[in-house]
Amino acid sequence: QSVLTQPPSVSGAPGQRVTISCTGSGSTIGAGYDVHWYQHLPGTAPKLVIYGDTNRPSGVPDRISASKSGASASLAISGLQAEDEAFYFCQSYDSSLGVVVFGGGTKLTVL
Amino acid sequence: QVHLQESGPGRVKASETLSLTCAVSGGSIRSYYWYWIRESPGKGLDWIAYFYYGGSANLSPSLNYNPSLKSRVTMSVDASKNHFSLKMTSVTPADTAIYHCARGGWNGRFDTWGQGTLVTVSS
User: Fold this and answer.
1) Hey, are the CB atoms on B108 and A43 less than 8 Å from each other?
2) DSSP B61
3) Taking a contact as any Cβ pair under 8 Å apart, which residues of chain A between 41 and 100 contact chain B?
4) Which residues make Cβ contacts (< 8 Å) with residue A7, sequence separation at least 6?
5) Secondary structure element (H or E) that encloses residue A35, with its range
6) In angstroms, what separates the C-alpha of B56 from chain A's closest C-alpha?
7) pLDDT digit string (tens) for B19-28?
8) Span A63-101, pLDDT tens digits
9) What percent helix, strand, coil does chain A show, rounded to 5?
10) Which tens digit of pLDDT belongs to each residue from B54-113?
11) How far apart are CA B21 and CA B13, in angstroms?
């Protein structure tokens, strides 16, 4: 069971906007630790798409954005494209465990 | 651009020792934090171990292990070859996973990952 909670799956039609939630606790996201988001296609290297809560690395389209409030964070993808279909997982730090922690991952399906 | 490449046995028998290596190119392992992370079926991602070099005067890396695996895991680092390795003893089918190495910081933010190597533990 992951320390950060994500929905197992979300879906949307091309062009639509979807959001993926990541719920932590007072020792993780709620303590102010950064949330990072990754896109993962099976068999490939995960790709960092959001770092430090809201920042996009170079090359990540501005259709991908993120926010954080309290002990939760969200990833939003607008203008859905077929290429967005992948697993997305969040990651933060847990001060009570003293380690990095991950969400369980969310499968995004583009209908 | 930094590139990470894992190598491993593919299949290991239960109770044996698993050995993995991560070769790093395009950047030095003396900077950043370097992790082993595994992706288990139905269990998601979990970190196994990580290391980092401290200040410039520190010639030995600081090694850190997930408490749940610490008794079975040993990480080694070869800065001259720019690679690091992991040994996991007494493996069971529960250790079946894709094993990734990754570059990050103390709080994660893994900006570079290897594509992973699948390890299957047979009983």
Assistant:
1) no
2) P
3) 43-48, 51-52, 57, 89, 91-93, 99-100
4) A20, A21, A106
5) none
6) 24
7) 999 999 999 9
8) 999 999 999 999 999 999 999 999 999 999 999 988 899
9) 5, 50, 45
10) 776 567 899 999 988 999 999 999 999 999 999 999 999 999 999 999 999 999 999 999
11) 18
Pick B114's closest partner by Cβ from A45, A48, A52. Answer: A45
Cα dihedral angle (A20, A75, B51, B3), rounded to 10 degrees?
Answer: 110
Inter-CA distances, B70 with A82, B2, B74, B88, B101, Å: 41, 28, 8, 9, 17
**Residue with tokens 């250790």, as numbered in its chain:** B95
Q: Which amino acid is at B53?
A: Y
Amino acid at A23: T
Question: Which of A9, A100, A106 should one mutate to test binding to chain B, selecting the residue with the greatest count of B CBs within 10 A?
Answer: A100
- Tell how strand B11-13 and strand B117-122 pair up: parallel
- Give the residue-averaged pLDDT of B33-46: 90
To test the contact with chain A by mutation, choose from B51, B110, B112 the residue with the greatest count of A C-beta atoms within 10 A, namely: B110
Q: Does B109 touch chain A (CB under 8 A)?
A: yes
Location of structure tokens 């269990």: B43
Which of A15-24, B25-34, B57-66 is predicted least confidently?
A: B57-66
Size of interface A-B (CB pairs under 8 A): 57
Per-residue pLDDT at B4 = 97
Look at B44 and A52 and tell me if their CB atoms are within 8 Å. Answer: no
Element (DSSP H or E) covering residue B63: strand B62-65
